[in-house]
Amino acid sequence: MNNSHDDHDPEELPAEISVTEVSDEVLRELSDLFGPTKGVQRPPVQSPHGEDPTEDLTEDLMPLDTATPYAAVTDSEFTDAEVISLTPDDSDGYRADVIVIGGDDGYDLTPAPADPLLKPLARGADVVDMSDDSGGTVVIDDQDLDRVVIVDDDRPDPRFDERQRRRERRERLKRVKWLKLGGLIVGLIVFVMGVLASPLFAIRNVGFEGVVYTSPATVEKVTNVLKGASVFTVDTAKAREQLLKDPWVSEVRITTDFPRGALVEIAERVPVVWYLGADQKARVVDARGHVITVLTGWPTKYLQVRGQGPSLEAGAVADDVFRAAAQLVLALPSEIRPKVKALDLTGGGELSMILKGGTVVRFGPPSDLKDKLVAVVVLFRRQDPATLAVVDVSTGEPTIQQR
């Protein structure tokens, strides 16, 4: 129905509206909406071309006045029709006029039962609490039906704690497994080390090679270190350090001979020259300048470097001039070496070589000795050294002085 108040005066509104005054098109439309009315045949469809079937409805149905307490619809010809008029609800200002056609047509106007999931809150509340089986809560605002608030009130799954306990138990078992494996490996290593260090593989025979001037006391210390130790765990580094403390020892190599042997190979230093210290003791020097030994007497197997040198202990390193003198002696060819009587060291650090025939060869500063020696060898091959008093190669070019 149209509630417009612009076309009709409320005073002219008829008291009753008969159903028979409604056009066939309207009745057909109402029948489609509410079902056929008992005793009334459904009117045929008459829809002329270009004619709106809803026009009769707007012309035949008079608008109701909103001030009228109620409106009733009757029909004297169709007794099966029922008209129900509802009084407007003054609480919210909303007016509802309901026309029910066909009281016995099977239309149930009984209000639907309340949803058991809906739980009204306290009186005057603006929201409706609706719960579901999952434990959650859906809150619908009464003032704003489009607003739905879902409150997550889920309780913890009782199986969650059990799964968590199982997971923690698996983690503990995994840690225990790794600890057991680590302990087993450590125990196995300890067992193997114990077997290898047992007397079953102890060294019983210790052999030495290259020992000539090495101190017997040093040899005995090294033997005590090696003997009785396992061939797998023997401390060869300690034995090597003991041997290298001896001034005569230049290099050491120790090898074990499974199952109960050890071999010590020693490379001793080679004495080349000697000099007299301030304490009047002879210091024997090798080609690297190491003082091998200190003697109270004068050695005869080695060439003497005349001149006073520092009073060093055995194992120390002499000055560079003594090392140069030792290297010069080692470089002498076999045709000259037997003719050399001694080397002479002046106060200025210049080196000279004295032959047994009295010839003096001056090398000057101990530098470029190799080139200077080559010049001397070439000269002696051309001329007899016995005819020469002085040969000077300190500048690189030999100069001679005849006898």
Can you tell me about this structure?
The structure is a single chain. With 403 residues, this protein is an alpha/beta fold. It folds into five domains: 1-110, no CATH class; 115-142; 163-194; 199-268, Ubiquitin-like (UB roll); 273-402, Cell division protein FtsQ/DivIB (Rossmann fold, 3-Layer(aba) Sandwich). 25% of the residues lie in helices and 22% in strands. The protein has seven helices and 18 strands. It has helices spanning 24-34, 55-60, 158-196, 216-226, 236-244, 320-331, 369-382, and strands at 17-18, 73-74, 118-120, 127-131, 137-141, 148-151, 205-209, 249-257, 261-268, 273-277, 282-285, 291-295, 303-309, 340-345, 351-355, 360-364, 388-392, 399-402. The strands form four sheets. Strands 12-11-10-13-14-15-16-17-18 form a nine-stranded mixed sheet, with helices on one face. It has a four-stranded antiparallel sheet with strand order 3-4-5-6, with no helix packed on it. Strands 7-9-8 form a three-stranded mixed sheet, covered by helices on one side. Strand 3 (118-120) and strand 4 form a beta hairpin. Helix 4 packs antiparallel against helix 5. The radius of gyration is 65 Å and the shape is elongated. The N and C termini lie far apart (160 Å). Mean pLDDT is 75; it is low at 1-17, 47-103 and 117-123. It is found in: Membrane. Residues 30-59 are annotated as: Disordered. Residues 201-269 form the POTRA domain. Keywords: Cell cycle, Cell division, Cell membrane, Membrane, Transmembrane, Transmembrane helix.
